[in-house]
Automatic annotation (TrEMBL):
Xref: InterPro entries: DUF4013 (IPR025098)
Transmembrane region(s): 20-43, 72-98, 110-138, 159-181, 187-208
Species name: Haloplanus rubicundus
Lineage: Archaea, Methanobacteriati, Methanobacteriota, Stenosarchaea group, Halobacteria
Keyword Methyltransferase: no
Pfam family, one: DUF4013
Protein name, per record: DUF4013 domain-containing protein
Record's keyword annotation contains Translocase: no
Keywords: Membrane, Transmembrane, Transmembrane helix
Superkingdom of origin: Archaea
Amino acid sequence: MITASLTYLRESDGWVKTVVVGGLLTLLGFLVVPTVLVAGYLVRVLRGTMHGDETAPQFDDWGNLAGDGLRAFAIALVYGLVPAVLVAVTAGLAAAVAGPGPRSGLVVGAVSLVGGLLALALGLLAAYIIPAAVANYAEQGSIRSGFAVDDLRPVLTSGTYATAWVTGFAIILGAGLVAAVLNVVPLLGTVVGAFVSFYAITAAYYIVGHAWGDCRGLELHDGEGEMGAERPAV
């Protein structure tokens, strides 16, 4: 699956254009709109791979792409709010108990440590849930499906999804390390790192899409895009 994910883009028609567009959008992600468009592309990746489609989508039909991306972005934002709020509350508590003397410093340190650990744990949990939540949206087409506990729980607690998530995380982490090495040459590293990051996250979502399809027992596309045999549920 790792090999297939890393060749997913490269073995599709027009892959160079896709990587160029995706890399540029990733590079300009600080403008928000490009990030939404990349999110929309990842929804397309999930929607295809959960049905066994091995052909990577292209950047086209920009209106629908933006709509998918905006909904996926909103789903991710909601899940990401909890750790973000916890960080803000921790900072507020630390400021409230701050004062002169060593005892105050110990209390501030304890509050910051506990709050930081909780925020880290919740952040990882959110990162674990978000791909599945977006996959459920990609399957059902409703933003509410991103929060459908009955759909998400059996997938999130399955070994299939857990393995896929860890594998995808490892790919993204590896891309981050490559980008860090490339940053030795500041401008070149930033630019090339954006393209590497786009390629890696696409590969990660390819794996998640397949895992989602396996867990949900979704039908597979045949070679012409028609529905074929149904895969067994995991």
